[in-house]
Amino acid sequence: MTRWHLQRRGTDGNDSAPVSIDASNIRLSWMTGKSAAQINELPVGADGRSVRLGDLFELTMDDSPTDRIVVEGELDHVHGLAAMHDRGDFEIIGSAGHYAACGMTGGRVCVRGDAGDYVAAPCGARRSGMSGGVIEIHGGVGNYAGHRMRRGTLMVRGSAGSMLGGSMVAGTICVGGATGNGLAVGMKRGSVILADAANVVRQADQDEDGAKRRYSSPIRFDPAFFGLYHEPMFQEITQMLLRLPVFRTRADRHVGGLGEVIFAATAETAVS
Amino acid sequence: MNDESKHPDTDNEAEANRPLEINGVRIEATFAEAFDMKATRVIITAMDEIWAEHAASAMSGFGTSVIDCKLEIDIERRLLPSETPDGRPGIALLAFAMSGGDLEKQITRRAGQCVLTCPTTALFAGLTDEVPRDKRIALGKTLRFFGDGNQISKVIDGTRFWRIPVMDGEFICQHDAPRVSGIGGGNFLLVARDLHAASRAARAAIGAIDPIPDVITPFPGGVTRSGSKVGSKYKSLIASTNDAYCPTLRGITDSQLGDGENAVLEVVLDGLSYDAIAEAMRTGIRAACSSCGEHGLVAVTAGNYGGKLGRHHFHLHEILS
Predict the structure, then answer these.
(1) Which of A31, A94, A183, B83 has a CB 3.0–4.6 Å from the CB of B79, allowing a cystine?
(2) What are the coiled-coil residue ranges (chain B) (predicted)?
(3) Tens digits of residue pLDDT in B71-129
(4) pTM (predicted TM-score)
(5) How far does the CA of residue B123 sit from the closest CA of chain A (Å)?
(6) CA-based nearest distance B174→chain A, Å
């Protein structure tokens, strides 16, 4: 087993440093069995041009108990990290750009920071988003997280932007912080678990964007299936819910969806 | 088949026939004959121990002998919340049948009628063996259809679970459970001066066997009084009373009982391995002899069919030495 460590080369004071990097070619399945020299030659998109991976990242390879890619450094302009990830671990130390773990089908992705828009969304022109594996985001995520997600688990310790779980088909999204507008728009099936549902309840009460009509009436719910998840972050987030009465609403009723949004009643949601 | 089960019946006859007593109880130089079965373990959890117990009792009801129940099933042990898949109190059951088809048919029916119906319960596989799909027993795979399209699937750590809407919330059920090879028909007979002594000895044996993993004693209270022989004078019966050990038939049939041997109870064991059954027999027999050797338990023997029925032979002297 191998650990590939990619350290983003310093960009301080370098005006010619790329503004946007497409790192979706960095895939564990491709790297397996390749030499360091071959990996350094991997073409990576930088501001629309193709450059060598070795020009942007410093690669080191070690033995490891599991196959693992670690990308570290200033990454908020590096997009498509862990795209189509299908096995082993992919760890991002720092805040990732857009499309992190898009189209992921298996394995595990951990972002030790924030992630941009379209986390676990479809990759490129594909129709389905994430279809397997586990994503763990230690910070927050941008808009369209879990868009068209089909299976797997997305956990976000921080907040999420708008359109969380939009057009979701299946899978589980668990968010510890606040969420933006348009939650579960077009959701067919799947589960969205929210520790902080104040904004969602406010939207539904005010019927912003037809939110009230998107959700069924919330009912009290005993989420016994939470016990099946042994991920520490999942347990950390759901523990916040389980101290309070838990409710479930079905979404998106506009499209006849049978998805579920599970949340806790708080004083704030009761007042709003 | 492990090495222990290959012992020929006549290995070192002198050794096998040496007299053996435990606390004054004669241990016969004979063997219990057991046979291959198909087995699985399921775990029932619930909001509290009471509902789990109700479901487990229902599921293991009418599961004493494959002769007519088609399934031998019993509670293996109670589980702490930390030992169950969903962190709730639970009960592990072991089930044994003569074929994979019988096992699947019985488990699926019992899960549907006894666990799905019981408030707050959930049902999980209790074995983690990697087995081919055709050697897995359907649980939620079949029961999910009760949800009438409203069932929800969750794949967690590679395992599929079903959440089936029911009137108290949701019934959570693992998709399927592995089916493995097991052994059925391990046994020993407690021969006593009277029924009270036999009953006390049997209870002591079952109490000692209870904590042993991978083994069940499927008869009521772990004990049967209706030990059987193969066949009958009636053509429709495949088994009939074990007349050799019926005290009331002594003098009429070819009895194995001597004077002062007036009551016999049998402990039947099914297990996931030879070692598990041997350990349970050893523990049970020693407990019975220790507690009742001076109070009416006269002898311990075992049932066999001359080695023709099953390939697993548990020689009493060997497992107790």
Answers:
(1) B83
(2) none
(3) 999 999 999 999 999 999 999 999 999 999 999 999 999 999 999 999 999 999 999 98
(4) 0.90
(5) 12
(6) 10
